[in-house]
């Protein structure tokens, strides 16, 4: 339960991969990649999409489509883009990131509006020194905030302040499938809010590899050049894309099961140690809970057969996915409940 990245391809997925028609995708001739790109673009109501090896490359390319060197991208202070991507936007793209304070990953429209740096006079003049804001990146679901899904009204409020300023919206949608199932907002409804999206096939959807950048046809043409420049253009990659296509067709609706199991675990933990997690905060497949000492708890959990990740010295994460079933979640709940109830470094449970 360390992450939903640990899933392995199902037997049906492996068959689809083995049977995939392939071609040279650098020449634009892989029919399976083309089918995947068209299908995913359609799901989000966009013109085009491009297959990439990872979500990190997807975010990097998408944001560089929106922001040229010497400009900035705003992102929430706890986002994947500024936490887990080795500063790639700056290192590779020459683009500065500036963080916006968020509450569980959600930035308010007034907070964003106050941080936009755009020149109402179209540049030049006394403002030639200023770093111009080109884009705002949001993360849906938000991984470090126990998988919170954005509400449509929250996004529309951001569109209302960024669009008039000419600032584009990007979605780090590594788990946008989970967000859609959790919130009831359709993928196309989410898609409408963004100039670009990066979506992952290898998280809860269970494909072994791959993400897509979703955008307009014009932008995807530029994206293909950036992908090539980064060494991310691949040849007979339909073998891999077929796993993603299978995942998109068969593994989206079942995410509701992962969400129910995550909620069940959160309820068990909250029973064992009141206050360590609020089950109402667990909307999708990520359970983030407070402990006395993450390292000690991880070791005890491991001894009990449950693998977790620490996201801080006192905060631990458990993730449900395709390869965690009802029996396993019951076992994990029992093992972790016993450990958190005895978690000796913590003070008395809050009343
Ligand atoms: C996993 C993840 C990514 C991309 O990760 P890769 O390992 O590069 O595929 C991007 N954003 C979020 C929020 C993620 O959880």
Describe this structure in words.
It is a single chain. This protein is α/β, with parallel strands linked by helices and 351 residues long. The chain folds into 2 domains: 247 residues, 3-Layer(aba) Sandwich (Aspartate Aminotransferase, domain 2); 89 residues, Aspartate Aminotransferase, domain 1, CATH 3.90.1150. The strands form 2 sheets. Strands 1-7-6-5-4-2-3 form a 7-stranded mixed β-sheet, sandwiched between helices. Strands 8-10-9 form a 3-stranded antiparallel β-sheet, covered by helices on one side. α2 runs parallel beside α11. 50% of the residues are buried. The model has no long low-confidence stretch (mean pLDDT 95). The structure holds pyridoxal-5'-phosphate. The site of pyridoxal-5'-phosphate has 12 residues, from α3.
Defining traits:
10 strands; Aspartate Aminotransferase, domain 2; alpha/beta; Aspartate Aminotransferase, domain 1; 2 domains; binds pyridoxal-5'-phosphate; 42% helix
CATH architecture of the largest domain: 3-Layer(aba) Sandwich
Which band does the percent of strand residues land in? 5-15%
**How is the main sheet built?**
7 strands, mixed
Which bin fits the share of residues in helices? 40-55%
Q: How many domains make up the coordinates? A: 2
CATH class of the largest domain: Alpha Beta
Mean pLDDT: 95
CATH superfamily of the largest domain: Type I PLP-dependent aspartate aminotransferase-like (Major domain)
* CATH fold-level name of the largest domain: Aspartate Aminotransferase, domain 2
Structure summary, number of beta strands: 10
* Cα Rg: 21 Å
| Uncertain regions spanning at least 5 consecutive residues | none
Put simply, the count of helices is: 14
User: What is the element string, with H for helices and E for strands?
Assistant: HHEHEHHEHEHEHHEEHHHEHEEH
Hetero ligands: pyridoxal-5'-phosphate
